[in-house]
């Protein structure tokens, strides 16, 4: 069973600077939802607030809760982190340079006390298109695309229901980007995952997401269906400007 997510009136402050202003969004079970906007619009801060990675020096407020049947874990708890995992932008910086792929995948299994680690690691590597030959390699022995597949495998190893994707392909070459996006979409269908994805690239978001929120300076500009964005059926001038600037959209389509 997949889970959904609800965020209400989220605010994140760093000293006197407010990075996110009273933001609300909902992610339906099994849905893929995108957050788009220029650099500094607060997109990644939203993901970090959801998974409890906002620095201790920041102040946050608002409500974050999972949506689904049965007893649901509290945000920030160990049980919450098992069900909500994050894939970061930089596949090299997010992997420990002195740990093998095997150790990186075994560690979360040990922390959460899951059984059959050998079988889980082998199955997860197969799921992301990496065979047993990659298991004892180090990050520096992998290409950028392979490192990001390892990062995805690390997020999947706990069998979560929700993945938070922070620009998961922006550090990759264009040809590798397509491979990783297709992998993510395939995994979502196979595992009934819910995605909350951050990107500055509207073409990527319309490929992977069903709905999206446009953000600017920590605030919502508008929320719309990805199909409406692709057809230039938007309501705000800022969204049109973003379309004109984004790779993959024709400038005349934004008029």
From TrEMBL:
It is a peripheral membrane protein. GO terms for molecular function: ATP binding. Residues 5-242 form the ABC transporter domain. Pfam families: ABC_tran. It comes from the Bacteria. Its main location: membrane. Keywords: ATP-binding, Cell inner membrane, Cell membrane, Membrane, Nucleotide-binding, Translocase, Transport. InterPro entries: AAA+_ATPase, ABC_transp_ATP-bind, ABC_transporter-like_ATP-bd, ABC_transporter-like_CS, P-loop_NTPase. Its EC number is 7.4.2.10. It is found in: Cell inner membrane; Membrane. It catalyses: glutathione(out) + ATP + H2O = glutathione(in) + ADP + phosphate + H(+). It is an enzyme of class 7 (translocase). The complex is composed of two ATP-binding proteins (GsiA), two transmembrane proteins (GsiC and GsiD) and a solute-binding protein (GsiB). Belongs to the ABC transporter superfamily. Glutathione importer (TC 3.A.1.5.11) family. Part of the ABC transporter complex GsiABCD involved in glutathione import. Responsible for energy coupling to the transport system. This is Glutathione import ATP-binding protein GsiA. It comes from Roseateles violae.
């Amino acid at each position: 069973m997949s889970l959904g997510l609800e965020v209400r009136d989220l605010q994140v402050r760093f000293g006197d600077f407010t990075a996110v202003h009273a933001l609300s969004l909902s992610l339906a079970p099994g849905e893929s939802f995108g957050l788009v906007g220029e650099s500094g619009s607060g997109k990644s801060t939203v993901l970090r607030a959801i998974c409890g990675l906002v620095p201790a020096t920041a102040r946050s407020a608002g409500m974050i809760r999972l949506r689904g049947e049965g007893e649901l874990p509290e945000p920030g708890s160990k049980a919450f982190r098992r069900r909500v995992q994050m894939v970061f932008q930089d596949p090299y910086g997010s992997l420990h340079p002195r740990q093998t792929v095997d150790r990186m995948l075994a560690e979360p299994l040990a922390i959460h006390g899951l059984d059959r680690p050998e079988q889980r690691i082998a199955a997860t590597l197969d799921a992301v298109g990496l065979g047993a030959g990659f298991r004892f390699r180090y990050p520096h022995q992998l290409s950028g695309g392979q490192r990001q597949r390892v990062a995805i495998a690390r997020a999947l190893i706990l069998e979560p229901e929700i993945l938070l994707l922070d620009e998961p392909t922006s550090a990759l070459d264009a040809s590798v980007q397509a491979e990783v996006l297709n992998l993510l979409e395939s995994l979502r269908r196979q595992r009934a995952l819910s995605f909350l994805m951050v990107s500055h690239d509207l073409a990527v978001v319309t490929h992977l997401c069903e709905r999206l929120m446009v953000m600017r300076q920590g605030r919502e500009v508008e929320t719309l269906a990805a199909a409406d964005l692709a057809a230039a059926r938007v309501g705000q001038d800022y969204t049109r400007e973003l379309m004109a600037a984004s790779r993959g959209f024709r400038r005349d389509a934004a008029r």
